[in-house]
Every structure is written in C-alpha cells, then in structure tokens.
Specification:
Layout: H1 8-16, E1 20-24, E2 27-32, E3 35-40, H2 47-52, H3 59-69, H4 75-81, H5 87-105, E4 114-117, E5 129-130, H6 131-148, H7 172-180, H8 187-194, H9 198-210, H10 233-237, H11 242-257
Antiparallel strand pairs: 1-2, 1-4, 2-3, 3-5
Helix pairs in contact: 3-4, 5-11, 6-9, 8-9
Length: 258
C-alpha cells in the first residue's frame, strides 16, 4: 500500500529547490534550496530549551548568541565558534529539535498552508535534511505512537498519574515525568518543563498509559488501522530512554552522509 504524503506542498517545494518558510497550523518549516534547515512549533521545545533546561548552556550564553548573531542568521555558528557548544553536539541537538518540531508542524491541519519565499530563520543552517527524510520520520513516529497505545486523547489531555501496581517497576525517567503529572499539565507542558523533546514525552505518556500508570481520558475507541504492524524491534531496547535512541539514529544518519 502506498503511503499518502504528509504534505504534498512540502514535497513540491523540495522538487523546486525553494527557499523560504512553510507556514502551517501547528508550526513552520524553513527550507533552503529545497532542503529543511529548521523547524519550530509551539508544541515542541526549541533547541534553546533543550540546551539550557538541563544546564548544558547557561541562559545568558544563549541570549548573548542571539543578540550578537541573530541579525545575521548565525546563532548556531556563534555558539560553536565561541566554544559554548561543540559542533557535533549542536548538530545532534538541532536535528533532534528540528525533527521534533516538524512532527507537530506536519500534523493534519484545517487551515491554509502558506509559503513565504526567501524567508530565513535567525538560527542559521546547521545540517540540511531532505523533505523526504522528514516525511518518513513523521510517518514512522505516528505509527509508533499508535502501536504503543492507540488513544491519541492522552497526547493533549492533562496527565493524571495512577499508583503503580504492587511490584511494578518504574524507571527514573518515568518517575520524573510522573512527578509532573498533577492533573493540570499536558504532555507538551511537561516536555517544556523537563527540557525534553515533545514527541518523546508523548511516547513516554502513551507507554505509561499502556502500563496503567496514567489515566486514559474517556473518548471514542481508536479507529481500525489499515496497516497494523508489530512495534519495531528497537522500541523494546530503548523503552527506558527514547532520547538515546534518537541520538543514535541521528548519529548513524550523519555518518552515512559523510
């Protein structure tokens, strides 16, 4: 069965080798010569949050880079040249943030999709990624979420923690998330608070729901899947820390292009 394109307009712009900003309901993709160089979404913490929330980069250092290099679209380059962040570390962090934001930006939208030619993001280019690769990853992530727990209502509802069953193991990563699950915070809010990619927080919440450790909101049953399949083998191996798996896949992708 042939998959339907996530965004036919994105693929058309890639074929045209267009440069500019693709604006959608849930985020924006920035293209340069037909390749995606940046993405942002209100649902996903940006590279600034991923770098500063855990203390890797002081917030003042981030702001300094924006002030000094934002106007010329070279914030990423300034962070590396000033020694604040290593080049490889920035690539991995930026790619992770870009795929994260793209997942939400490419979500089904009800409003118009617009493209502004010539627009560039102030962060600057780190490592361009093909539109086809972003589409494939977006589809893979959608399928993974449904394979883990096919109730999308948990993605936006306040997360309500439930006590573990006797003898039920809870990882440190899960404990950190459950500590934030006070019945008012959504997965997106928790992602921002913890400085974690939003998609991985959704994945964690669905795993917790499947394990009975958070509530699943009442709603209609999940629709039958046309292409139901087994969870990919790597899921079980990295269930405790999906961020590590993403870094490994990004590293492998980078090495394959060198």
């Amino acid at each position: 069965m042939t998959r339907r394109a996530v965004s036919p307009m994105l693929l058309r712009l890639a074929e045209e080798r267009a440069t500019g900003a693709l604006l959608r309901d849930h985020g924006t993709l920035y293209l340069s010569d037909g390749r995606i160089v940046h993405a942002e979404s209100p649902a996903a913490p940006g590279v600034d949050v991923l770098l500063t929330a855990g203390g890797r980069l002081p917030r003042t250092s981030w702001q300094e880079a924006v002030d000094k290099a934002g106007a010329r679209g070279a914030v990423g380059r300034h962070l590396v040249d000033s020694g604040r962040v290593g080049g490889g570390e920035l690539e991995i962090c930026h790619l992770g943030a870009m795929f994260d934001a793209a997942f939400f930006a490419l979500a089904p939208a009800g409003g118009p999709t617009r493209f502004r030619y010539g627009v560039a993001h102030w962060f600057g280019t780190v490592r361009p990624v093909s539109a086809a690769a972003v589409e494939r990853e977006t589809l893979r992530r959608r399928e993974l979420l449904d394979a883990v727990w096919p109730y999308e209502a948990v993605d936006s509802a306040p997360v309500v923690a439930r006590p573990p069953a006797p003898g039920q193991a809870v990882t440190r990563r899960q404990r950190d998330l459950l500590a934030m699950a006070d019945g008012t915070r959504s997965p997106a809010t928790i992602a921002w608070a913890l400085g974690r990619p939003a998609f991985h927080t959704l994945l964690d919440v669905r795993r917790l729901a499947a394990a009975g450790l958070v509530d699943t909101p009442q709603g209609p049953p999940p629709a039958p899947q046309e292409t139901a399949g087994a969870v990919p083998p790597w899921v079980a191996a990295i269930s405790d820390d999906p961020d590590i798996a993403l870094l490994r896949r990004l590293r492998d992708a980078l090495e394959a292009t060198l």
